[in-house]
Design a protein that fits this description.
alpha/beta, Aspartate Aminotransferase, domain 1, 14 helices, binds pyridoxal-5'-phosphate, seven-stranded mixed β-sheet, Aspartate Aminotransferase, domain 2, 13 strands, four-stranded antiparallel β-sheet
Length: 408
C-alpha cells in the first residue's frame, strides 16, 4: 500500500458517509479540534474492545507487542521513515510536547527559541522544562503582518534570532491562531547550515508541533528535515481519540532521557536481564502503563484507511475545500480573512472576523444558525472554519450563506 497513491477520483461523498456526526448542524470545526471517528476506525476499536473484554489478560499478552509494532510500522510508512522504532506512541500532541521538552538533556545556559505563534501546550511545556534545568527560553515574532507574510520573511526572522546558545528551535507547522503554514523544509535547510561547525552537543535541534499539517500535507519526515515531529492523531488524521505519535531522527533520540518507563519488550528485557538498550529510540520513549489499548491498536487501522485514500488525494481535496471557503469569505465586505490565501502558506484552518461581532458572538451566531465553528484559544482570538474530508462542497456553501446572513 503506497502512502502516495493518488485517488483524485475518490468518492468524497461516500467518504463523508463513513462519519456518524449528526447532520442537523454543519461541522466546520471537528477536523481541527477532536474528531468524529469514521466507520473503519470505529469498527477497529470495536473489534479490539470485544477481544479485550472477553479475555483481557491472555489477549493482551498475546498481541500487545505485535500490535504496538504494527502501529509504529504504519506511522513510519505514512511518514516514509525507514525505522519504525523511531516512532513513539503517545496520547496527544500535548503529551508529546511535554515528554520531549522535559526529557531533553538541556544544560544551564542553553536556550530554547520559540515563537509568539505557537499553542499554549508548546509554550507551557517549554516554560516548565526550562524552569527545571536552568536553561532559558525566548519567543520571537516571525512576520510583520499576515497580509504580507512570505516564506522568505519567516526564514530570515529565524536566521536573525538563532544565537550561539540556542539548542532547540520549537515551531508549529500550521498555526492554529491564524492558519499560517510555516516553510518547515526551508527553516530546516537554514538550521543545517547553522549547524555546520557546531559540536554535536550544541547543534540546534528543531522540534515541530506538526498537528495541523499532519493528515493534510504531503511532505515526508525526511523532506521536512526536523529532529522531533510531534503530533496528535485525533485531528486531521481522523485516528482514535486519545492517540498521538512522536517521530524523531535516531540522533535526536540520543538527546533525551525518558520520563515514563515504557512497557512492551523494553520492560521484559529490563526485568529479565537488567539490560537496557544501548541506543535510545521511540520504543523507549513510548510511555508505559496499560492504556486504552483498543484505541491505540486501532491507530494502525486509521493509518491504513488514510493511506488507502492517498496522501496526494487528501491534500488536493482539503486544499480545494479550503480555497472555496476562503475565497467565498474574502469576497464578503463584512468579513476579514486573516489566513493567507495561497496553498503554500495555508492548509486546513481558516481564521476570520465578522464585522460587528466579537469572536465569541460570531461563534454563537453561527451556531444559532446551525454552523459549528471554533474560536482560536489565543490572546487575540479569531473565528475558525476548518474544512476537511468530513465536509462536502454543500457544507462550505451553506456555511458561507450563513456568514453572509450575519452582515449588519
Ligand atoms: C497547534 C496546536 N498544538 C497542540 C494542540 C493540542 O492538541 P492535542 O489535543 O493533540 O494535545 C492544539 C489543539 O488544538 C493545537 O492547535
Amino acid at each position: 500500500m503506497s502512502s502516495h497513491k493518488n485517488k483524485s477520483h475518490a468518492d468524497w461523498k461516500a467518504i463523508t458517509k463513513l462519519f456518524t456526526h449528526d447532520r442537523k448542524n454543519i461541522h466546520m470545526g471537528a477536523s481541527q479540534f477532536v474528531v468524529s471517528h469514521p466507520k473503519p476506525v470505529h469498527e477497529a476499536i470495536d473489534k479490539y474492545r470485544k477481544q479485550l473484554d472477553k479475555d483481557p489478560v491472555q489477549y493482551t499478552e498475546k498481541v500487545e507487542n505485535e500490535y504496538m509494532q504494527r502501529v509504529r510500522e504504519a506511522a513510519a510508512q505514512y511518514l516514509q521513515m525507514e525505522n519504525p522504532d523511531d516512532i513513539a506512541v503517545t496520547d496527544s500532541t500535548t503529551m508529546g510536547l511535554g515528554l520531549i521538552y522535559t526529557a531533553l538533556n538541556l544544560q544551564p545556559g542553553q536556550e530554547i527559541l520559540t515563537t509568539d505563534h505557537d499553542h499554549y501546550s508548546q509554550h507551557e511545556a517549554i516554560r516548565m522544562a526550562t524552569g527545571r534545568t536552568g536553561a532559558s527560553f525566548r519567543r520571537i515574532r516571525l512576520f510583520e503582518s499576515l497580509s504580507s507574510v512570505s516564506k522568505e520573511e519567516i526564514v530570515l526572522s529565524v536566521k536573525e534570532s538563532i544565537r550561539e546558545n540556542t539548542r532547540v528551535l520549537g515551531i508549529t507547522w500550521v498555526h492554529s491562531s491564524s492558519g499560517l503554514k510555516m516553510p518547515v523544509p526551508e527553516i530546516a535547510a537554514l538550521v543545517r547550515e547553522i549547524n555546520v561547525g557546531r559540536s554535536e552537543a550544541n547543534k540546534v535541534l528543531i522540534l515541530l508541533d506538526a498537528v495541523h499539517g499532519f493528515g493534510i500535507e504531503k511532505e515526508s519526515f525526511g523532506e521536512l528535515g526536523v529532529d522531533f515531529f510531534i503530533t496528535g492523531c485525533h485531528k486531521w488524521l481522523y485516528g482514535p481519540r486519545g492517540t498521538g505519535i512522536i517521530a524523531a531522527k535516531r540522533s535526536a533520540w540520543q538527546t533525551v532521557t525518558p520520563i515514563i518507563p515504557s512497557f512492551t519488550e523494553v520492560m521484559d528485557k529490563v526485568i529479565a536481564e537488567e539490560e537496557r538498550p544501548k541506543e535510545m529510540d521511540g520504543k523507549q520513549m513510548t510511555p508505559g502503563g496499560f492504556h486504552s489499548l483498543e484505541y491505540r491498536w486501532a491507530l494502525c487501522d486509521a493509518f491504513h484507511w488514510v493511506m488507502d485514500m492517498g496522501k496526494e488525494a487528501i491534500w488536493e481535496r482539503v486544499h480545494e475545500l479550503n480555497r472555496r471557503c476562503k475565497e467565498g469569505l474574502a469576497e464578503m465586505e463584512h468579513v476579514v480573512v486573516h489566513t493567507p490565501l495561497s496553498d503554500e502558506l495555508s492548509a486546513g484552518i481558516i481564521s476570520f472576523d465578522i464585522a460587528g461581532y466579537s469572536t465569541e458572538e460570531a461563534v454563537q451566531a453561527l451556531l444559532d444558525k446551525g454552523v459549528i465553528a471554533t474560536a482560536s484559544p489565543y490572546k487575540t482570538s479569531w473565528t475558525r472554519f476548518t474544512p476537511g474530508i468530513i465536509n462536502m462542497e454543500e457544507d462550505i456553501d451553506k456555511a458561507l450563506e450563513v456568514v453572509q446572513s450575519l452582515k449588519k
